[in-house]
Amino acid sequence: MNNFLDLCREAIGASHVITNEADMASYLVDWRRRYTGRAQAVLRPGSVEEVAALVRLCVDAGVPICPQGGNTGLVLGSVPDLSGRAVVLSLGRMNRIRDIDLVNNTMTVDAGCILANIQQAADERDRLFPLSLGAEGSCTIGGNLSTNAGGTGVLRYGNTRELCLGLEVVTPQGEVWNGLRGLRKDNTGYDLRDLYIGAEGTLGIITGAVIKLFPRPKATLTALAAMQTTDAALKLLTLARQQCGATLTGFELMSQFCLELVAKHYPQMHAPFPQPYPQYVLLELSDSESEEHAMAMLESLITGALEEETIQDAVVAGSIAQSRALWDIREHITLAQADEGKNIKHDVSVPISRIGDFIHETDALLADRFPGIRMVTFGHLGDGNLHYNVSPPVDMPADDFMERQHEVNQVVHDSVHRFHGSISAEHGLGALKREEIKQYKSAVELRLMGVIKDALDPLHLMNPGKVL
Ligand code: FAD
Ligand code: MLT
Ligand code: ZN
């Protein structure tokens, strides 16, 4: 008889304590299906009190906790290690929208709310919650906050951190910190909220949040522009910023090879141009005046860029369906890459002005060391954030290539470091990058992170093996 699990059953109900291998399977494997962890149980609490009770039981029994939202994370943060000692604490049942305040422009939500449901709830009240990413149909706001997710709206609205005013957290001791304040100004000591955001479940469990709402734009327009080089894409970014200001809400780069991969695995999704171009930019404008106003701005930008030959071709979506079709191409790159087989992913940022140089220099270094490799480069160009991914040469077995992952990472991340960039722009460190980060963060920064971890989670039960 496992006393610890019996106490968990008593605390949250036996049906919410999963121990059966088959039922646990989807909680233990990461989204890319590259790694499967082990756990003694998956616990599915239904309230903050139940989360706190479970944490206290884990403390008493010395059981490590792996918090999990939608399990869409890409850095092995949401799956437990191989010891089998941990429990996965899934927030999936905590999916209530608690309150919407249309004057304060805030929404208070349970951490397990699916992002798309939050977007929809905002839309129904004529508001916008601007966090947007390919996994929005299954990721949760608790996971978004814990990874400080970025996505496609950062250029205008900021990362998840900028979208959050307050948090409710269960501490590693099983206390509840109610910081659900909807305040835009609050300078009353250390900012605990900002400490928990991006902590990847290593400092406590986020159970609720107050998030910011924005006016819903009157018109949203999408265009796809084709160009020869990433330098031209950067030139278009400068033009778009000058001419469209805050109306510019999306600026996503995709190489021709990304589009080829998407068309291969999703044949209905292809670029609407008669010929291929090396690079493409997906642009989004969100206007608070009218569709006519936005269209005039977009057409002027595109006509000017065509005339000065910054871009070679462009299409403007004429309907919501056409806009969706363009965004579908962008959002299916990750899926197409996964369908294609094993590859090495990077999520890097460098100062926007250096992106062109970073790509040229790093492409050349990689081509020299790994002849025939195929670059799958795309991402949030407007934020200086690239998904600089590497696929094996066509004639090399993927497993042979994956054995050289460490070498590939070293070339890419050393280059990022030389360009004063970050080796994780938006996905976090998880278990995947926790060793590597030690090469790039200063000893002082690593020491301070360790001090914070020791102070808040002295037993190191919160998501061990991740981040630090
Ligand atoms: P999970 O994967 O379950 O967990 C992520 C991390 O947060 C883990 O460390 C976990 O322990 C911790 N955690 C989860 N919930 C809690 C909680 N309540 N309290 C404490 N810790 C918690 N990311 C981007 O930033 N930008 C993108 O554009 C983007 N696009 C994506 C597209 C696809 C197709 C996929 C599969 C992923 C994408 N991601 C992106 C990565 C991922 O979706 C995000 O990181 C997302 O925010 C994770 O949310 P989740 O609920 O799935 O969290
Ligand atoms: C994206 O921007 O699509 C994501 O961050 C996912 C990825 O890197 O594949
Ligand atoms: Zn991304």
TrEMBL record:
Keyword Flavoprotein: yes
Alphabetic keyword roster: FAD, Flavoprotein
Pfam families linked to this entry: FAD-oxidase_C, FAD_binding_4
Record bears the keyword Chloroplast: no
Alphabetized Gene3D superfamilies for the sequence: 3.30.465.10, 3.30.70.2190, 3.30.70.2740, Uridine Diphospho-n-acetylenolpyruvylglucosamine Reductase, domain 2, Vanillyl-alcohol Oxidase, Chain A, domain 4
FAD-binding PCMH-type domain residues: 35-216
Family of the protein in this entry: Belongs to the FAD-binding oxidoreductase/transferase type 4 family.
Protein name in the entry: D-lactate dehydrogenase (Cytochrome)
